[in-house]
Each structure stands twice: as C-alpha cells, then as structure tokens.
Amino acid sequence: MTPVRVVLVDDQALLRQGLRKLLEVEDGIEVVGEAADGYEALRVIGDRRPHVALVDMRMPGMNGVELIVRLAAEHPEVAVVVLSTFDEDEFIFGALRGGATGYLLKDCSPEDLVAAVHRVSRGETVLGSPVAARLVAELRHLPVSPVAFRGQELLSAREVEVARMVAAGAANREIAARLFITEGTVKNHVSSVLRKLGLRDRIQLALHLRH
Questions:
Q1: Residue ranges per domain, the chain?
Q2: For 161, which of 48, 109, 132, 205 is 20 to 30 Å away at the CA?
Q3: Contact 1, 30 (CB under 8 A)
Q4: How is domain 143-208 classified at the CATH fold level?
C-alpha cells in the first residue's frame, strides 16, 4: 500500500520534530517535508507533492487560513488538517470555509492524530470532539439565509430544497421523509449539489448557506 505522504507546517521547530517522530513510526505514513511558515509551505508542498498537510493556524508572514485558501486553489489534491491550540470561531470557520478537511486541537491524542491523517487521505472530514461540538453549537445559532446563495442558479429546485435542509442540520432520513423520496435519492441530490457548488462535504455546504 502506498504510504500517506505528509508535510508538517508549524513555526515551532520542536513541535515539528515531535510530530515527525510520532508519525514516522506508523506504518503507512511518510513525512516528506517541513515548513516554518505559509510561504515555505507552498514551496515545499509544490516540490514534495504530499497527500496531507498538517497546518498550524498562527504563523509569521501568512497565517493558516490564508495558506489553506491558497492550497485549495493551487493544490486542491492536498488534504489539509489544522493542528492548533486555538478553537476560536474565527479560526474554525475560516479554516473550514477555506477548504480544510480536518481541525484538531494540539492536545488531541496521538492515536486521534494518526487516524485523522489516514481518514483525510481517504477523502473524509475529521473534527476533534471539542471542535465538532463548537461548530454544531454555532451553526444552530446561524440562520440559513432566506435569500439566494452563491451558485444557486446551478441547482434544480429540488436540489435547492435539499441543500437548505442539509444546511439546517437535517439528516438524509429526515429529508427523505419530508420530501417523500428515498434516502438514496437524497444522497444523489446531495452529491450533485456538492459537485455543482464545488464543495467537499455537508459541513462546507452548511457554511456556504449560512452568512
């Protein structure tokens, strides 16, 4: 099996060394590069072509959110996992809107970090428990915008309906029951919406429809 190639992006050399030692003892993970800031990260990622980048949020020159946005535009094939001490809304929402596929706090367990690297490399989204709880709580207080959202003209009327229900937190089973369609049809609609809007998952869709 091809190992997951990882680049570490953090301005603290000691932390990068610790992460490298932690990850390199794991089967199926290869640390292929390090960077101390966002500009260096863009160069290293361009040269080393990793599958996953572990990114800190506060770095000199270019912060984590700015780097994530650049990576989403220039290297969309790279899955970005934020590894940060900060759980403020500004960082969480900024990172996820920017294209991050994971957000973990630095006090997470080694097992959770290793699992996250593997999961995001498979296209999954990973949120640490405190981050997920914070995100859910905040989304509940952010109303779904009643006005047309960016890209709505690309969707069918039924897809718009499904998108708004997803953004409101409804599960596929609930959407299917309310619209009198099958769960499989709901899944197809959600996949179509994500593809047309250029979004990765339901979390990004929810953020996209909430302003």
A1: 4-138, 143-208
A2: 132
A3: no
A4: Arc Repressor Mutant, subunit A (1.10.10)
pLDDT category of residue 11 using cuts at 50, 70 and 90: very high
Q: Give the sign of the dihedral formed by CA 139, CA 71, CA 14, CA 3.
A: positive
Phi, psi of 37 (to 5 degrees): -155, 175
3-state secondary structure the chain: CCCEEEEEECCCHHHHHHHHHHHHCCCCEEEEEEECCHHHHHHHHHHHCCCEEEECCCCCCCCHHHHHHHHHHHCCCCEEEEEECCCCHHHHHHHHHHCCCEEEECCCCHHHHHHHHHHHHCCCCEECHHHHHHHHHHHHHCCECCCCCCCHHHCCHHHHHHHHHHHCCCCHHHHHHHHCCCHHHHHHHHHHHHHHHCCCCHHHHHHHCEC
Whether 48 and 5 have beta carbons less than 8 Å apart is answered as yes
Tokens read off for 33: 């590069």
- What's the CATH code, domain 4-138? 3.40.50.2300
pLDDT in tens, 92-101: 888 888 889 9
Residue type at 172? N
pTM of the model: 0.73
Report the amino acid identity of residue 19.
Answer: L
Average pLDDT, the chain: 88
